Amino acid sequence: MPLLLDKLLKTWLFIGPHPDDVELGCGGTIARYSSKVDMHYLIVSPATEDPRNKNILQEMEKAAEILGLKKSNITVLHFPRRILHEYRADIRQQLIRIVNEVNPDVIFSTTPDDLHQDHAVIGEEVLRLFRERSVIGYEVIRSSINFSANFYVELSEEDINRKIKALMEYKSQQDRYYFDPEVIISLARMRGSQVKARYAEAFRVWRFIVR
Q: What's the CA gap between 24 and 11, in Å, rounded?
């Protein structure tokens, strides 16, 4: 019998250190479940210090719309990228505030062992702060080098196509190798093959609470 996530967990919060992290790691899962649960999306650092990212928040909104995320459920903080470790105390306060407002049943975040320093900071703080909530880590293809998956979400062809379509809205990032649709499909096929499915996204369950 399949696990009916949308029946067990009604409110989901996705936390991205930067725009596109959530879509890369969870885009197919969001596409599959966005019409069934109450989803919220938090970006900690929009990375607009880089001139190439001047339109990235508009790109993010278009991508989120394709995946079925409501604009009213998107929150953007404005911490500087690459040095989130210098703002841990302020980030903790903002995370506590937002989680209290959203009251999510599950939080999706980057993992503490991610090679990217900003990703690691967010993964550590989410896991440390919210011990009373389910926390699931998502895979970031360019920096989750030692990612150990123990949870998979099977995806349909439509889910994968929507994920790719959403990522194509990030016009500013198209020269990055991991935005290549073939790379995205290949990862989904590889993860799917691990659970005898055509496509899947892989996650790391840090804490799963059933009440």
A: 20
Instruction: Reduce the secondary structure of the chain to three states and give it as a string.
Output: CCCCHHHHCCEEEEEECCCCHHHHHHHHHHHHHCCCCEEEEEECCCCCCCHHHCCHHHHHHHHHHHHCCCHHHEEECCCCCCCHHHHHHHHHHHHHHHHHHHCCCEEEECCCCCCCHHHHHHHHHHHHHCCCCEEEEECCCCCCCCCCCCEEEEECHHHHHHHHHHHCCCHHHCCCHHHCHHHHHHHHHHHHHCCCCCEEEEEEEEECCCC
The first and second tokens of residue 85, run together, are: 């470790």
User: Cβ atoms within 10 A of the Cβ of 139, count?
Assistant: 21
Residue pair 40/102 in contact (Cβ under 8 Å)? The answer is: yes
Nearest CA among 87, 94, 80, 83 for reference residue 126: 94
Mean pLDDT across the stretch 168-181?
96
| 3 confidence band (pLDDT: 50, 70, 90) | low
| pTM of the predicted model as reported, rounded to 2 decimal places | 0.96
Note the pLDDT tens digit of each residue in 47-76: 999 999 999 999 999 999 999 999 999 999
CB of 194 within 8 A of CB of 203? no
